[in-house]
Amino acid sequence: xxxxxxxxxxxxxAATGLPAGPAGTAVHRGRNDILHYGLRNKKLLFGLSLExxxxxxxxxxxxxxxxxxxxxxxxxxxxxGSKYWLGTDLTGYDLYSQLTNGLRxxxxxxxxxxxxxxxxxxxxxxIAGWRGGWLDEVLQMITNIIVMIxxxxxxxxxxxxxxxxxxLFEGVFxxxxxxxxxxxAVRAQTFSLRSREYxxxxxxxxxxxxxxxxKEIAPNMASYLFLVVIxxxxxxxxxxxSYDFLGVGPNNVAxxxxxxxxxxxxxxxxxxxxxxxxxxxxxLCLMVxxxxxxxxxxxxxxxxxxxxx
Amino acid sequence: xxxxxxxxxxxxxxAFFVGVSIDWGIPRLMPGDPxxxxxxxxxxxxxxxxxxxxxxxxxxxxxxVPLWQQYLDFWKGVLTxxxxxxxxxxGATVTHLVFSAMPYTLAxxxxxxxxxxxLGNRLGAAAARRKFLDNSILPFGYLLQAxxxxxxxxxxxxxxxxxxxxxxxxxxxxxxxxPHFDWTFIASLLDHxxxxxxxxxxxxxGGWAIGMRNLVIYELENDSSRYLRALGASERVxxxxxxxxxxxxxxxxxxxxxxxxxxxxxxxxxxFNYPGLGNLIxxxxxxxxYFLLQGIFIFIVLGVLIANFVIDLVFIAVDPRTxxxxxxxxx
Amino acid sequence: MSVSxxxxxxxxxxxxxxxxxxxxxxxSLADGEIMGxxxxxxxxxxxxxxxxxxxxxxxxxxxxxxxVDGKDLPISDSNAMRSRRMTEVSLVPQYAMSALTPTRKIxxxxxxxxxxxxxxxxxxVMTELRRRLELIGLKEDVLGKYSFELSGGMRQRVTxxxxxxxxxxxxxxxxVTSALDVSTQRAVGEMLIEFRDRGYIKSAIAIxxxxxxxxxxxxxxxxxxxxxxxxxxxxxxxxxSPLHPYTQALLASLPEVGVRHxxxxxxxxxxxxxxxxxxxxxxRFRDRCPFAFAKCSETPPFxxxxxxxxxACWKASQEHxxxxxxxxxxxxxxxx
Lengths: 309, 331, 336
Description:
The complex is a heterotrimer of chains A (about 300), B (about 325) and C (about 325). Chain A is mainly alpha-helical. The relative contact order of chain A is 0.19. Helix content of chain A is about 70%, strand content about 0%. Chain B is an all-alpha fold and about 325 residues long. Chain B is globular. The two termini of chain C are about 40 Å apart. In chain C, β7, α6 and β8 form a beta-alpha-beta unit. Chain C has two domains: about 5-225, P-loop containing nucleotide triphosphate hydrolases (Rossmann fold, 3-Layer(aba) Sandwich); about 235-255 and about 275-335, no CATH class. Chain C has an eight-stranded mixed β-sheet, with helices on both faces. In chain C, α5 (about 150-165) runs parallel beside α6 (about 180-195). Chain C is of the alpha/beta class and about 325 residues long. Classes of the chains: A mainly alpha (about 300), B mainly alpha (about 325), C alpha/beta (about 325).
């Protein structure tokens, strides 16, 4: 079983398997190398540009809306048109406004969730991989247990007791339920890097552990961790959408999942109000898609083995 | 093998323990008073009646006994299958409701997982082989992976139901029929089953294809494949071996993905108003039926553990290393 | 001549241009000859050996040609090579420890290989396989085991048996003793000789950085440095009277068993081999050579100085010419 592709796929972003991990030899690849391949990698360029467009939309979009997302306009059930670009819903909410605000919310939750999971996962995974022994066993056990608890249902149970939920809460909850994936991956990488020759060399020459970690291991893991965080970001966004759709997302926040929830609850399907539920999901899909493609491209840039043959 | 199984079983027991404890602990850790919320729905006028009702609920929640006894009582309930009575459907026990809904959920989950897994694996392996296939399957796979469950759960019934009128978009069977085993009923069941199944199937497919593709590509470049090539083995043999090797981590991945698929399943059921566990959760939320929610949670945890165990057994059958316990699998 | 390699160059593609790992190498092997190919890490010996069997997609061969048993070996054409692999040329890889796929029993792997080559009468081959296993002391039940169930030494021997099963004319053994303890090294070395003696393999190239093992098993030795051949001679000649300064330094740096550090200090060769991405002009050993002189800025030809003894060194060719000229056979002082 290879050490570089951990068995644990990212939640929601399913079994992509992880990026291939630092290449066999400890080549501290020059930045020129990465830049050279990076600028030429079609997947990376495509993914980055698409994502950039969407980010711009998230930043600028809401300023172009005529109404705040939760403000009831006097024109419900409008088809997309010149006045309301994405139309309005049953209550009269401006759907363009909801979409662009939803974009912001998604990015926010994505960042929160990914950040939390990354911090916890990297810390624990690294400790487990570096120290090994019983500490590793315990952490592995904890990881396995958390993985088996269905987080959606858990959130539903928790959420039903809470009357007010914030974006922060949602983000942190996602972080707390997805860190095991990161921890596993980081642990596997740490294990494999720990036993590489150059680490032994550093140890033999008497360098202190922190110095070894910083100078030898971290640079090689950095690219890997970067890829992991990107996957995490996408997965957090998708998970948040499901939570919001179920109604256990943050209150009074017009998120993409919430808009779809509203559409479903108000029989938008029966009334053919396609502009209510198709744009939010489509945009979310594109956001994650761009991330995934960019991720694949970036993986190729970091790992020569994967490059075009 | 024995060591592997023992380790796994310990993990499962612990996980169940943690799951039940969390389930018990949540209502007690949450801010606010759930009983107050319940009682307030009854709009009781007099304070005496309020107090009496409150006491009644406290008793049924078991909150009038010391904490440790509540915990033990909870465990007793779990182990005997008595999870209390439902508030949303008064008179029905939680266990009964769960068992009525479970077949529908399983009918969605099991075929969807099995089919998306096997088809996804084959697609992924095919993509790993030919560059041309790779260029078409890969972006498609990523697109599927990026598709949010809720969105597809709305688009699919919209297209197939509202627009093209091919399939019904709600309920488990025609509400006009009485459930019994005749052909009309079964046909109606299948008719209503198809779209939700399709939704869960499609979203899961992408992930498996991509994962398998990456794994197969990796295996095709590893030492054992290189050796076979150096000895002039046919590409078919090399591919077959790579596929075999790649199936193992992919199988481990399946166990880990269960939570995600269950989540997606719940979302789908709610969108389709399909009478499975997901829909039950939805009703429980709307009616603040805490007993029902907690009961469903336990059952789902149990289900996940059992499924994990089954996959572990399959893993043993498929991986000679675990079977001969030369190296325990690291999963 | 059983094997002949003429002017072979092998380069790795990289976005910065091609890196020539093997530069214009020529040699030949007689039937039944085991040639040792030695040199430092990165000198190109592994690339050379592997290129004769399987040319990676990242590598490209240019220049000369390779002939085995009088027939042309199309090393650049992977498809054409497939039928010749294992049957005419075969490889025991450097990564033999992980070369056997972990999810298939050994016997099954061999069976699949035989099927790939459309070997008629597989049963006969399997019987022969069992005989060879017994010959080297491996039990027949190895065929029913998985690779991870075998020790390192067993795995190495199994790969050698596998690679030589169809009696190839040329066997490339890449670092077959490097991962083993001394007694297993000896067993593997003897196995190679035994196989050659019995005709299971016709000739072999043993690639290693360990000269001492070559002294035991090789009929002749070729030394490579920075992608080029430095010297080639029959084993006893090379060990007793090496002509190339690099070979001399290599031999001098070998520790002698029983000798202590306070008696003899080990000498290494100061400096490092040149980068192959941008190699210096002329003799590549120049910077590290204690005998370098002006002429060394030209590339010395790899030529036969004495019968069967080829060297690429100006000093050696000069001395030889002078000796041949003066007829006195006295060593002369080097010119600076």
